[in-house]
Amino acid sequence: MKRKAGQDRSITASWRPATRAIRGGTARSEWGETSEALFLTSGYSYDRAEDAAARFAGEQVGMTYSRLQNPTVEMLEERISLLEGAEACRTMATGMAAMTAALLCQLESGDHLVGGRAAFGSCRWLTDTLLPKFGIATTIVDARDPQAFVDAVRPNTKVFFFETPANPTMDVVDLAAVCAIARERGIRTVVDNAFATPALQRPMEYGADITAYSATKMMDGQGRVLAGAVCGTRSFIDEVLLPFTRNTGPTLAPFNAWVVMKGLETLDLRIRRQSDNALAVARFLEGRVKRVNCPFLPSHPQHNLAISQMDAAGPIFSLEVEDRPQAFALLNGLALVDISNNIGDSRSLMTHPASTTHSGVAEEKRIEMGVTEGLLRLNVGLEDPADVIADLDQALGGAGL
Q1: Dist. CA 380–CA 273, nearest whole Å
Q2: DSSP-based three-state secondary structure for 289
Q3: Which of 10, 54, 129, 298 is geometrically suited to a Cys-Cys bond with 59, CB 3.0 to 4.6 A?
Q4: Number of C-alpha atoms within 13 angstroms, CB side, residue 218?
Q5: In a domain, 61, yes or no
């Protein structure tokens, strides 16, 4: 495999994001294919026994096993790191594999983590249930308040972990402020940037150390495969993360990597169109329901912060009605929008987090997070927004709204 002409960082660094999403990381075999090749292989052969020994010793460049290296997967990793503005990237089987690995690879018994209150249900399970099992203390704070991170710091604090915008309440974290607090104290920041992707928000530009993704979402963007990614410095990826992943095996399949690469080619187009659609739908819903949580609406309490660090709204926001019966009535009245707990899809999807994505979170914690019985999360797709609005309009009417 040879890198396409010009695939060195001194040249690719000058490319704009849309170009990086299509050309970044491309490597070609001796056949000269234009579309990235799909290498479905678990292992690799060697010309001599000495070559195998040299590769395992790190003395010879080459691949040994697809749990560690694969040409298709490496192309995706290079492409994501270019989009992120990171030195390196390591992909995973799922988004939650990425979140888990990003934390466990650098934490041990006796360490302390500060996590954002509003988060995906499985991420709260990590901070509230899994990490304490290994003797890692956690403190949960309202991540909208940078001072809350300052107040929570202990001598053994090693990591700040948060989402922005947060799932599903759409809380926005001041990236520059929180990352500066961490840097001053020698603490690493791990930012879940799945809702925005690097197409709309690049946390490392604000001082973040590590970004983690469910590439299942907008990066694939069409509801086809599961994937995750972690971006950081070359030393973090190779010396801290890689020893963990090579021995625990949360490996991304080459086919899934290839599909995500195809998704990245249209990421910029899709996410910007979906952002426009979502904002139109959010404006329609405002005043029709109890509350709409969309950072690019002036009514959002962190509107100014959101527009200062995000390029567009993104496709996802949440809304609130009175209670679960009214939420279910609205969902059951939908004809076009699907009831689904996925996000980032090109199709419009809606779910009730309290009974799906956050059902594993204790009720008192859900309330603390702002995940009420009347909260609904909406992913606005690529359909004509007028059709999505019409569907919501009739469903709202059927629900008495």
Answers
A1: 10
A2: strand
A3: 54
A4: 28
A5: no
Tokens of 241: 């993360």
Query: Which range is least confidently modeled, 6-15, 182-191, 240-249, 279-288?
Result: 6-15
Domain of residue 148 covers 2-37+70-264
Q: Are residues 274 and 247 in the same domain?
A: no
Cβ of 315: how many Cβ atoms within 10 Å?
33
**Euclidean distance between CA atoms 146 and 379, whole angstroms:** 28
Q: Which of 215, 248, 264 is the last residue of a domain?
A: 264
DSSP string, 109-152: TT-EEEEESS--HHHHHIIIIIHHHTT-EEEEE-TT-HHHHHHH
User: What's the domain count of the chain?
Assistant: 2
CATH number at residue 15: 3.40.640.10
- Mention every residue, 6+ apart, whose C-beta is less than 8 A from residue 147: none
CB atoms within 10 A of CB 364: 8
Q: 3-state DSSP helix/strand/coil percent for the chain, to nearest 5?
A: 45, 15, 40
Which tens digit of pLDDT belongs to each residue from 183-211? 999 999 999 999 999 999 999 999 999 99
How far is 217 from 339, CA to CA, in rounded Å? 16
DSSP for residue 77: H
Local structure of 320: helix, strand or coil: strand
Position 47 in a domain: no
Residue 7's pLDDT band, with cuts at 50, 70 and 90, is low
Residues 392 and 306 in one domain: yes
Specify if 107 maps to a domain.
yes
State whether 24 and 119 are in the same domain: yes
Q: What is the pTM of this model?
A: 0.94
> For 2, left (φ over 0), alpha (ψ -120 to 50), or beta?
beta
Check whether residue 280 and residue 184 sit in a common domain. no
In contact, 90 and 237? CB cutoff 8 Å: yes
Residue ending a domain, among 264, 288, 310, is 264
30 occurs within a structural domain: yes
Domain with residue 306: its CATH number is 3.90.1150.10
C-alpha of 33 from chain center:
30
